[in-house]
Model the fold of this input.
Amino acid sequence: MTDRRAFIRGAAGLAGVAAGGAAGYALHSPDADPTAEANAAIVGGRLAAVPFHGVHQAGILPAPQRASAVVSLNATTANAADLRELFQTVTDRARFLTAGGTPTPVGIGGPAKDSGVLGPEVVPDGLTVTFGVGSSLFDERYGLASKLPSTLTPMTSFPNDDLDPAQCDGDLILQLSAGNSDTVIHALRDIAQNTRGGMQINWRIDGFASPARPVGTVPRNLMGFMDGIANPPATETDDLVWVREPSWAAGGSYFVVRLIRMLVEFWDRVDVTEQQQMFGRDRDTGYPLDANGIDAIPDYAADPFGDVIPLNAHMRLANPRTPQTASSQILRRAWNYDRGIDQVGDLDMGLVFTCYQQDVQRQFEAVQTRLIGEPLIDYISPFGGGYFLALPGVRDTSDWYGRTLLT
Done:
């Protein structure tokens, strides 16, 4: 631990500017996940702990928690040895924060070891820490060029995107999700304090998952529609979510972040029937326009000309439900965001869209290509995000994030 403490005392801080993000596709949790069900217990108004160790990172499969922060970072360590120390420190902090406990006592005259945001005892509150790497980490700095996965690239810009380079990509990605926003803030500050000198924030955005309204389990996005109804079931994630190669990445997942602003002032002037035609679902119930149940599968074969669900409806383009497009399904996750107003006084809000998949080009980019030119492009403005690889899970107390990559 002596070397670790020396590393932690580095000069540069993990601090940065807030960034924004927003809308993508409808989201929904997959079939009931046993981990998510186990975490449903409430202790003192907080969620119970999510088990940290496992083959996969614990924050990938469960449905979105109430609060989240997505943080892109650049590595600032001097060499590969220090990078390993950084990854080990992030692992140590994530392991403690997700389990909860009493922070290390403050020494006489020494700085506080904990921000105190959660009081004297750190509560788990369902916290998950998802940690990944971007393609830029594999440059000449750390000798990782030969280990760059062929499908890990900088984020692609699609037609109608308005990408801000300051809010795109990064060496590293960190997503913190929990039952309450103070838990997320506490975790971010803890990791920042303990990795000082190791990584610097590139961009950041905070999000929230709204309660299901009026009832049910599906939250609504800030366009008023239920946000997430179709996702591959948990039993089908092996061929859609988990990476198998290169060997060091096995058990990880390609992690796409897409920040898309919703132009809500314009959207709120659109007739509800027209809004429903753009999505392909009823706004109040979430039902497909050709069905009477939220989980009903739309019958596109019975509607070949789009008389009921338009051919260019969002849900129909994103998931045509054909044998040819089955392999392009993605595990979708998203949070609403609200950053107040922009420079001209317009509302700045939308969706922090994320998804996990086995292959970005085969899955996310195939879906996004089908969505080019959809009617919704007049009401959304993608402006940031990135492509990352969420690392394999930390299997036990002797393991750490990125061990198979960095050793």
